[in-house]
């Protein structure tokens, strides 16, 4: 049986989310069933859309029309101009999507970009971002962030912290937790029976035997050795400067990196428009385009939908893998 349609939450209505949702539907047609949760008033003028009252009806909507599960917001939206009055609606769209996935009415949740300051100003949003909020809605799930494309998958062990804090935050327990969640996620959601994991070093040349820092030998190497002894296909710490060329990438399924830019620079260099943000560890599938709200180009018809299309496709493929 085919997976249920994918739910797409609207994200920040003053950003490019509504525009790329319409463009993604135009590109995908009815080849991939999904529906948009949001206020139809926020769609670009002249957009073709069709109201549905049940996610299953998304399959019945003409290929040139966006299936919309309406969710009224407090106010209209002006492209590029944040309105805190709509913050509650943005949060409600995410909550509705999660509820539908948890109920089995949707196979996965894809989230359009949100604007954290607008949510904080308008609704007192206390979470750093989508990932933490979704973990909360899932009952406090332990999660990690993976950026993925057909060319590369990366998982940063530490994310939005200053580089100076990474050696202190990067503990053996944290690294082991991230690797185990990554390993389980690739098996469950990517259909990879025995994931091959490459672990980057923290320091240049992976510490070069302690000459360039002790963390690689003291923290990373023992964790990798312990997991390898359990039967995990894992290598590291590896010098990060030689991990991301084509021949090296052919030897692993995912790279676990030690900090934000070490992970995100290579994937954004290799596939800026095709990268997808995936949350591993949730009891449901969640993907998102790997870009922000782009307020500066909202409403100008310039927004590129490639990353959203990739996120919808990956959500659909992961749903099929998990169902299988």
From TrEMBL:
Signal peptide: none
Statement: the UniProt record of this protein carries the keyword Magnesium: yes
Pfam families found in the cross-reference section: PdxA
EC number: 1.1.1.262
Cofactor note: Binds 1 divalent metal cation per subunit. Can use ions such as Zn(2+), Mg(2+) or Co(2+).
Tagged with keyword Lipid metabolism: no
Residues noted as binding substrate in the record, renumbered to the chain: 130-131, 268, 277, 286
Localization, UniProt: Cytoplasm
Residues reported to bind a divalent metal cation: 160, 205, 260
InterPro entries named in the record: PdxA, PdxA_fam
Catalytic activity: 4-(phosphooxy)-L-threonine + NAD(+) = 3-amino-2-oxopropyl phosphate + CO2 + NADH
Pathway given in the UniProt record: Cofactor biosynthesis; pyridoxine 5'-phosphate biosynthesis; pyridoxine 5'-phosphate from D-erythrose 4-phosphate: step 4/5
Record key words, sorted: Cobalt, Cytoplasm, Magnesium, Metal-binding, NAD, NADP, Oxidoreductase, Pyridoxine biosynthesis, Zinc
Protein function: Catalyzes the NAD(P)-dependent oxidation of 4-(phosphooxy)-L-threonine (HTP) into 2-amino-3-oxo-4-(phosphooxy)butyric acid which spontaneously decarboxylates to form 3-amino-2-oxopropyl phosphate (AHAP).
Further remark: The active site is located at the dimer interface.
Complexes and interactors: Homodimer.
Protein name per its UniProtKB record: 4-hydroxythreonine-4-phosphate dehydrogenase
Lineage per the UniProt record: Bacteria, Pseudomonadati, Pseudomonadota, Alphaproteobacteria, Rhodobacterales
